[in-house]
Amino acid sequence: MHSEAFNEIQADISALETSFDVFKFLRIAAERHRLKYFSVMILPGEMAGGFKNHSIINNWPPDLIEAYDRADLINLSPVMAALKSRTRPLVWHIDGVLASEVSANLALLRDRFHDNGFVHGVNFPVHDSLGRRGSIGFAGDRGPFERSELLELSMLSIHVFDRLSCITHHADTAAPALSQREMECLRWTADGKTSSEIAAILSLSEHTVNHHLIGATKKLDAVNRTQAVAKSIRKGWI
What we know:
- The chain is an alpha+beta fold.
- It has two domains: 3-173, Beta-Lactamase, CATH 3.30.450.80; 176-231, Winged helix-like DNA-binding domain superfamily/Winged helix DNA-binding domain (Arc Repressor Mutant, subunit A).
- Helix content is 58%, strand content 13%.
- It starts with a helix and ends with a helix.
């Protein structure tokens, strides 16, 4: 890429104001490179919890995230292990991540990734001005990456992670406090309960539960309730 193109991308990223703006930007960037999926994750020194706990933004199918976490793949995946000590992009194929000698359950998970077009991808180790380490990953069912594509995606990932850090840090300091009901609904959501189940537990209508979850999601500048739960966990609220 020419320096003008780099500057243009950097300017586009600097103009992003919310997490949802970043979500839309990454979706367009992925599609431009014939990729279906993206994820932005925090990489703590010791992995605790699953994908949902460490994901800041992603467009993975919810059932695939559930399967990933049931298999504890965040601790078993060689991609995750490598990213904790790596500084260069990591290109991978799902058949290498979940090789032929894995257990029957992991082999089934590998088939699910294939069925969802989650076959070939790349993860970029990143960090922000606060010293937090993370990863931005892209995946799809396309062929090998060109060097120019990796260069563009690497540069994009570095600036997106830093911009997202600024956005979320501002939201952390400026966001209004959640109500007690919003906190309760988030806690039960983190426990895996559906809106109807939470409604029965709290003696509320399902509509009211959804209203509280939407309110909490907006206050936390989250894309969806899954991200709202992850942010609340990182804040130590649940």
